[in-house]
From TrEMBL:
This is Major facilitator superfamily. GO terms for cellular component: membrane. It comes from Heterobasidion irregulare (strain TC 32-1). InterPro entries: MFS (IPR011701), MFS_dom (IPR020846), MFS_trans_sf (IPR036259), Tet-R_TetA/multi-R_MdtG-like (IPR001958). It is found in: Membrane. Keywords: Membrane, Transmembrane, Transmembrane helix, Transport.
Length: 489
């Protein structure tokens, strides 16, 4: 079959339902990135560092790590629950918890309350694997690459909106004194407003999902059909009895069919397979690569705002939260638009495996950019000049390539599931693996960063050397990804 033939027979995407699922996915990057512009300042203001700026990385790393500990602890359970009761109720419940935890984070006054709120956010975000399962059930092999091509878009959009919200609405009493300068509440809780905006966004998405999203789990759909069939049969029997006995005298004595008398619609996929049966060599290879992907990506996500906010004498760029939010927001917007356009064509032209390897290898250029920018800034007398901005833009461009890996990885994960009834569990296993790595990455990256600065290891750049070596190992691991899909895309 030629490529043109495949295009002719490609199944149209269910655009509205796909859009609703992507909206739910959008809440995850917003809630996870909204704190990035101000979390380091927030940690310092709790007093936990006791005025020592070098210790900020330790405590900021704890906050980020526990977010992914919560996600790892809940993601498989969310997936298995969705395999039993359906995708929609699980997704709705997750949005409720996420909204409440965002408000709690903004109202925190102590470091440990920050930690607790962030952990609950991670638990709520554990249902991210359920959204990917729903996407897999909404598509087939002819249009799946196009659908999953929107995953980088929603993440990039969330990574755009989140930091913009965090940078723009933090410290509103100081930023807009005429509007909020007299508010004692906002002076006491300077980071409540960005958290509240993110929490309200989740509540809005909850309303949209409740009204418009249809169930996608085949077993749940069949149960709904069985219920409707039973109710229709009972109603038809009641109507027939009334018509045959116009005076209704025999109605109470007539025998109506009970639900047990109506045969169930066969459902061969209702039972979800065990976790052990899903751990095939093919899936294990994918999980190893997902481990490197999550570890490298999350380490960079933590180091970016940490390094950008660190003072210039200590090796950073000395940016304030607003500048960091503007940089991350602008980059995320450009990144999302670009990847939504290029992902599916690149998969068709290069193949999923080759695209993954090339995109992941681009991270080998990202980590060396940090010490290079520090060197250029100090050489310019503590000024972030055009040369620094040039390196910064190139760094973000290389990092953008990494987002292509998530789409290709998701194609492989869906392909590795034995049936649609196993999508939730398969995605849950993969997401748990990624979340465990992301729970380690913030503490690892921020602690290595702090140690590098405190002991001046390799001029404060030891953390970047270690992460470069880990990235190189990930490149070698990517060469073992299967060359072809079990079910051709």
């Amino acid at each position: 079959m030629t490529r043109d033939d495949r295009k002719v027979h490609r199944t149209p995407l269910p655009k509205m339902q796909l859009f609703l699922v992507i909206l739910i996915m959008f809440a995850e990057p917003v809630s996870s990135t909204v704190i990035y512009p101000f979390v380091n300042a927030f940690v310092r203001e709790t007093g936990i560092t006791r005025g020592d700026e070098k210790k900020t990385g330790y405590y900021a790393g704890i906050i980020e790590s526990l977010f992914f500990v919560g996600e790892a602890a809940s993601v498989v359970q969310w997936g298995r629950a969705s395999d039993r009761i359906g995708r929609k109720p699980v997704l709705m419940f997750g949005l409720v918890i996420l909204s409440a935890s965002m408000f709690s984070f903004g109202l925190s006054k102590t470091f440990w309350l920050l930690v607790t709120s962030r952990f609950i956010q991670g638990v709520a975000n554990g249902n991210i694997g359920v959204t990917k399962s729903a996407m897999g059930e909404l598509t087939d092999s002819t249009n799946m690459a196009r659908a999953f091509g929107y995953i980088p878009l929603q993440w990039a959009a969330g990574a755009t909106v989140g930091p913009l919200i965090g940078g723009l609405f933090s410290r509103p009493a100081e930023r807009w004194p005429k509007l909020f300068g007299r508010s004692d509440f906002l002076r006491s809780y300077p980071y409540f407003m960005p958290c509240a905006v993110a929490g309200l966004l989740s509540l809005m998405l909850l309303t949209v999902v409740a009204m418009g999203l249809q169930e996608t789990l085949p077993a749940a759909i069949k149960r709904q059909q069985q219920k409707i069939s039973r109710q229709s049969s009972i109603y038809a029997s009641e109507t027939t009895t009334l018509l045959n006995h116009g005076d209704g005298s025999a109605y109470n004595n007539s025998q109506l069919p009970s639900e047990s008398m109506i045969p169930d619609i066969p459902d061969s996929e209702e039972s979800s397979p065990s976790i052990r049966s899903l751990l095939t060599p093919r899936l294990i290879i994918l999980l190893i690569n997902y481990t490197f992907l999550a570890l490298v990506d999350q380490s960079h996500q933590v180091l970016l705002p940490l390094t950008y906010s660190t003072s210039i004498p200590l090796g950073g760029l000395g940016f304030d939260p607003f500048t960091i939010g503007a940089i991350m927001g602008t980059w995320g917007m450009i990144n999302g638009i670009t990847q939504s356009i290029i992902f599916a064509p690149l998969v068709e032209k290069l193949g999923a495996r080759r695209l993954y390897v090339v995109a992941f290898a681009c991270m080998l250029l990202v980590f060396p950019a940090y010490p290079l920018m520090s060197f250029l800034t100090k050489r310019a007398g503590g000024i972030v000049d055009a040369w620094v901005w040039t390196v910064l833009i190139m760094q973000l461009a290389c990092n953008s390539m990494l987002f292509l890996c998530y789409g290709t990885m998701q194609l492989y994960l869906v392909d590795s599931a034995p049936s649609k009834s196993a999508y939730g569990t398969t995605n849950g296993i993969a997401q748990m693996t990624a979340s465990l790595c992301r729970s380690v990455s913030p503490a690892l990256a921020s602690s290595l960063y702090a140690i590098s600065l405190e002991h001046n290891l390799l001029g404060g750049s030891m953390v970047f050397c270690i992460l470069w070596i880990i990235t190189l190992a990930g490149v070698f691991a990517s060469l073992h990804i299967p060359r072809a899909f079990t079910h051709p895309q």
